[in-house]
Specification:
Layout (H helix, E strand, L loop, with lengths): L7 H14 L8 H7 L4 H13 L3 E4 L2 E4 L1 H16 L1
Antiparallel strand pairs: 1-2
């Protein structure tokens, strides 16, 4: 079993992907982010707060949504990952 640790960029990508998948109508709360991105609540909370502060994610009634800027960053991260 591989125990390769994810980089911070990979974790951010995973969270943005989980939140982005909720834009189809599914409500994404913190629990779904925690399980979808495979993080603990403390780490997910810290990173979500940072993403909100940077304008990549917004929160409304405990539901997270990706912003247009967040979508752009997610696409750019995808391009970078494809290079490596």
């Amino acid at each position: 079993m591989s125990t390769k640790r994810r980089t911070k960029i990979e974790i951010i990508r995973d969270i943005l992907e989980v939140v982005s998948n909720g834009n189809g109508g599914e409500k994404i709360n913190k629990t779904k982010v925690v399980y979808g991105a495979n993080l603990n609540f403390e780490r997910a909370s810290r990173i979500l707060n940072w993403l909100i502060e940077k304008g990549l994610v917004k929160v409304d009634s405990d539901t997270y949504k990706i912003t247009e800027r967040g979508e752009e960053i997610l696409r750019e991260i995808g391009k970078l990952v494809a290079l490596f």
